[in-house]
Amino acid sequence: MNLPPMSLSPLRVAFRYLLFVLLLAPLFLATGCGRSGEPFPVRAFLAAPDNLLGNRYELEAEIDAQLNWREGLGRIIAVRTLRDSARLPIFISDSMKANLLVAQRYRFEVSLRKGGLLYVENLKKL
Fold first, then answer.
1. Helix, strand, coil shares of the chain as percentages rounded to 5?
2. What is the pLDDT of residue 11?
3. 41-47 average pLDDT score
4. Which helix (H) or strand (E) holds 56?
5. What pLDDT does 34 receive?
6. Per mean pLDDT, which range of 3-17, 54-68, 82-96 is the poorest?
7. In sequence order, which residues have a C-beta less than 8 Å from that of residue 58 and are 6 or more positions away?
8. DSSP letters spanning 8-53
9. Burial class of residue 50 in the structure, from the number of CB atoms within 10 Å of its CB (0-12 exposed, 13-18 middle, 19+ buried)
10. For the whole model, what pTM was predicted?
C-alpha cells in the first residue's frame, strides 16, 4: 500500500513550532531563566557591593526601622535578613504605595544599583 507523501503547509509548521516553544517555556522558567529568584548573597554584598551591581535577587527580611522618607520619592528602610540577621538598607519607591510597619516580614525582589543601595522592585508580605 503506497501512501501519498505528506507535505506540511506553512501554517502547520508554524503551529508545530509554537507548540514546541510553549512546551519548553515552563522548563526555562523553572530553571530560573528570565527571573531573579536567587537568594541575596549578604556576605558578598558586604564584602564588595560593586561586584553585584545590576543583579536582581530575592531577599526575605523583617522591617527594622524607617531611616528616611521623602514625599514623592520614597523611603529608606533598614531590614534584618531572616537567614542571618544582617541589617541592610533598602529603598522603596513611593510609587509602590506600600504600608510598612516595623517587625513585618516580606519577600523583596531587589536590584543592586549604583551607590550600593538595594532598590525594591516588588514585595510580598510573608
1. 25, 35, 35
2. 76
3. 93
4. strand 56-70
5. 43
6. 3-17
7. 36, 37, 38, 39, 40, 107, 108, 109, 110
8. --HHHHHHHHHHHHHHHHHHHHHTTTTS--PBP-HHHHHH-GGGGT
9. exposed
10. 0.69
